[in-house]
Design a protein that fits this description.
Radius of gyration: 24 Å
Largest sheet: 5 strands, mixed
Shape: elongated
Number of domains: 2
CATH architecture of the largest domain: Orthogonal Bundle
Strand content: 5-15%
Strand order of the largest sheet: 2-1-5-3-4
CATH topology of the largest domain: Fumarate Reductase Iron-sulfur Protein, Chain B, domain 2
Oligomer: single chain
CATH superfamily of the largest domain: Alpha-helical ferredoxin
Length: about 290
């Protein structure tokens, strides 16, 4: 029982308005991405109206003699309001050089197929506005991955790492048909793993990771985030969670992360990847703690 007496209401400290509106680390990072850029972007859009944009596109074709040496081709693309990097390279392909090769599909930042290295940063082509970039706009394939042709990179290794963590729901023993019930998830648990479920498998985070660049066996931030989504789901039983943690705490798993936040910075879906990796480290430590 507490012996502390309640203080009179008149002596309660007034609520600090700054504390009431305090932001989480994730919210602060998202604000930093946009802070101070609105006016600059508006000025750039005004300057570009009716002008052309110079894009410098990486070119490489191992199957064509004379194009096996990497180079950059320049394209002057007419600027239109709302033009994205993907719009610009599509215009260059359709109007200037039909052999220009790149991946794209939904054009709505959902499929993740058009991740490029734009002006020194991993970005989604369909999500990146030309007006937000300095000219000339330099467009390259994702670093640290083998280039197949032009802006297309080999994603097989990335997909292999994703599948290593068994990215599918497992609930242990399936009950008899007569006993089947809906597996409900609490709103609190759904909120906890919500951000991790936004991954679109674009590979931008893997490309930005210095550890993945030097360690081909490292699972990488995307795969670990995918494992986080299922490991933190309350509907999976404890044995399955322990199995996932054993995969993640291997030599080339979560402990290889050096907390550089590069993956978090380039993620087009604003997933707090580094925070998820650190939380899985804590879970792995707790699993191995023994009291006797």
């Amino acid at each position: 029982m507490s012996t502390q007496q309640a203080e009179p209401e008149s002596q309660e400290a007034p609520e600090d308005p700054e504390m009431k509106g305090a932001e989480s680390p994730q919210e602060r990072r998202l604000d930093d991405k946009d802070d101070g850029m609105v006016d600059e972007h508006s000025e750039k859009k005004a300057e570009l109206e009716g002008e052309t944009v110079l894009i410098k596109v990486f070119r490489y074709d191992p199957e064509v003699e004379g194009k096996q040496e990497p180079r950059f081709d320049d394209f002057h693309v007419p600027f239109e309001k709302g033009m994205t990097v993907l719009d610009a390279v599509m215009y260059a392909r359709d109007e200037y050089d039909s052999s220009l090769t790149f991946r794209h599909s939904c054009r709505q930042a959902v499929c993740g197929s058009d991740a490029f290295f734009v002006n020194g940063r991993q970005r989604l082509g369909c999500k990146t506005q030309i007006s937000d970039l300095d000219q000339p706009v330099r467009i390259e394939p994702l670093p640290h991955q083998e280039v197949v042709k032009d802006l297309v990179v080999d994603m097989d290794h990335f997909y292999d790492q994703m599948h290593t963590v068994e990215p599918y729901f497992q609930d242990g023993d399936t009950p008899a048909v007569d006993d089947l019930e809906e597996q409900r998830q609490s709103p609190e648990n759904r909120e906890k793993i919500k951000m991790s479920s936004r991954c679109i498998w674009c590979g931008a985070c893997m490309s930005s990771c210095n550890i993945a660049a030097g360690d081909n066996e490292y699972l990488g931030p995307a795969a670990i985030n995918k494992a986080y989504k299922f490991a933190m789901d309350d509907r999976e039983d404890e044995q399955i969670k322990e199995h996932r943690l054993r995969i993640l705490e291997q030599e080339h798993g979560v402990w290889r992360c050096q907390t550089q936040f590069s993956c978090t910075e380039v993620c087009p879906k604003d997933i707090p990847l580094t925070e998820h990796i650190q939380e899985l480290k804590r879970e792995a430590v707790k699993k191995n703690l023994k009291f006797w």
